[in-house]
Amino acid sequence: MRIPRALGLVCATALLASCAPAQSTGNDSTADEMTGTLRVWLFSEVNQEPKEKVVDEAVEEFEAAHEGVTVDVQYIPVDTRAERFRAAFNDPSSAPDVAEFGNTDLAGYVEAGGFADITEDLSAWDEAADFSPELAATTEVDGASYGVPWYVGMRALYYRTDLFSEHDIEVPETLEEVVEAARELREKEPDLLGLSSGGAYTYGFLPFVWAHGGDIATVEGDTHTAAIDSAQSRAGVELYSEVLSEDVCPPQTCSEMGGNDSVQNFVAGRAAMTIGGNFNLNAVEESEVADDYAVIPLPGTEPGSIAPAFAGGNNLGVLAGTERRTLAVEFMKLLGGKDYQLKMYEAMGNLPTFTDVQAEVAQSSPEMEPFIATLEAGTRFVPVTGAWSTIDAQTVLPSMMQQIAGGDATVEEATAEAATRMNDAFSGQ
User: Where is the signal peptide (predicted)?
Assistant: First the structure.
């Protein structure tokens, strides 16, 4: 079974643009009308028709079950979401009742008072018990739930089976072996990148940090403190810096690359390996390397282990100012429930967030197994604070890797500077 093209992973395919928190009273509406127009915002896609068909089916089902209710769905551009949500939070009369949003944007939106606390609604919903715990956590701030995890994107290791076979190279079982194999492949195939993964590919290099026991930051109470300069984090950064070298992925080519360019080199036949997502499968299947590749979970530091991956994806939530809260929650549950998550997977390739639906997908689509195995092994997330938008927009982590790759700073110097910049953002400076 060929997976459909998965489009628009807002916070999985690349670093997000800043979504600075809006100013809002944060007061939930006390109205709860049971008729009228339910307004829904979803993200537009490059190829939107498959998504629209599934959503239209959900709308038809919902309207049939709710007399006097019309569901108005608007598809908004991802690139302008910050401005659209900021305006919506400040003017509830122009806001949707239900909205799709990137999971790394959530903390800032909650700080702005934009989304409703739906903890009790989810506790009364039987299906919610089957959400992957790691993914459910990406909808929570300070222990309260503000959304339903709608889909997730996982990254794993793509590699050229023909090249590994031709040069008698074993499939790597640890991160160090990934780097060693990449170095050997580039030596034997100097026209290729050993491992295509760039300095600006944050969600490509963070698994190296997490696998070594490091982290972006630690949290105690309401206080976040940078941890990218810890000994464990530096060990992961040090190993990834070996990727950004002449004998694996030359800095002049790879230092500025983000996720899309990193994967595109593999798709175009210019790399022996890459770290790519389930959302890249279709492009690889349609490429010249379609018959000569395989995917395995990105290994950790020990044989048999899997490096923690970033749990990127999109959620569905209810706006705090909605005057149709009950209807909004019911529509969110319908579109974000098991039946329609499976339909969205079949239409778009979006990996579901329910563990039982994931098992069904893995059984029917073997190509998804490495990504689901990665998810099941345990994922990690960015710091749950509105300050992450600032850190992200300032490209703190990519700048750190690029300094090291360019020889402008040692690992110790670059991580120390990154930690200082992160702590400034955490403290609001």
Answer: 1-22
